[in-house]
Amino acid sequence: MSYSLSILDKSPIPPGATAADALANTVALAKLAEQLGYYRFWVAEHHSTPLLASSAPEVLISHILAHTSRIRVGSGGVMLQHYSPYKVAETFNLLAALAPGRVDLGVGKAPGGLPFSTRALQHYHDAARKPDFTAQLTELNAFLNEGQPEGHPLAGAKATPLPPITPGRFLLGGSPDSARLAARLGWDFAYAGHFNGDPLNIQQSIAVYRQWTGKVPALALYAFAAETREQAQALVGELKLFKVTLEDGRSVNVPSREAAEEFARQAGSSRYQLEEKHPHVIAGTAGDVRAELDSLHQSYGIREFIIDIPVAQFALRRASIALLAEAREPLAA
């Protein structure tokens, strides 16, 4: 049984480059991924950071769709807590009408930034009326279907235009609870293995989703290929994430201790817990990466891997995508 390869791109801004450079690189990678037979190309949402250029994935998706013709393009993902579910449904219905059968709506729960940007995004929200994530996702799902049921405060509103093929729907998460929520709403599920690579948690999340749907979720992970194993491992280095948990229970993964301290400062919290995490990165030759993906496929039945390349330099990311494409056919066979 074969599996598909897809790409998640965050539009990193390398030293000495500009945001315009980074976005042009993302479009170039999407075009290359299409030429090489990748299945999807997703772009991320990050706010108020000098390191990443993609703050509005729906805008970037539209641009990529206009520069490609076959590959599916989507969000990995829209940070739903900041937005009106109705507006998200309208936006992705419009994208799906522009490119029928090629648009994915991936939704995430994380803030995609530090508290100052979250505050700015939600400044005009009525906090007393803001629903939790499950309610927001349920509302979004209804707008993507026929609209809210009779008796709902927003009944009667339709998310137009109505596309000939509705956008694909993916919940991005890293727990059995997320898998259960995706299954309950009839959404596809993409497990965020690059943030939570614990084998037991992966196994439990997959088992829950499979029990409810009979399907296996996609698996997102860090992977990077170079000409030699030593070169790949040296270029990736030691990847670290820091989980910061505030006194009020809020938690988020950030890339450095400094970012964790800044998150707490912006949140107005002087006391917090910090957990250093070392995400698993598949780094080596294309054959090394292929062998590990094959092992994950055999262990869990994964049918699609969404690859996040943890290197900022465009030439290295482009080379990695090409090397993995070359190694894909023996693996699929």
TrEMBL record:
InterPro entries reported in the protein's UniProt record: Bact_Lucif_Oxidored (IPR050766), CmoO-like (IPR019949), Luciferase-like_dom (IPR011251), Luciferase-like_sf (IPR036661)
SUPFAM superfamilies associated with the record: Bacterial luciferase-like
Domain of life of the native organism: Bacteria
Sequence ranges assigned to domain Luciferase-like in this UniProt record: 15-297
GO molecular function, one term: oxidoreductase activity, acting on paired donors, with incorporation or reduction of molecular oxygen
GO cellular-component term (any): cytosol
NCBIfam families given in the database record: oxido_grp_1
Family of the protein in this entry: To bacterial alkanal monooxygenase alpha and beta chains.
Full protein name: Bacterial luciferase family protein YtmO
Organism: Aquitalea magnusonii
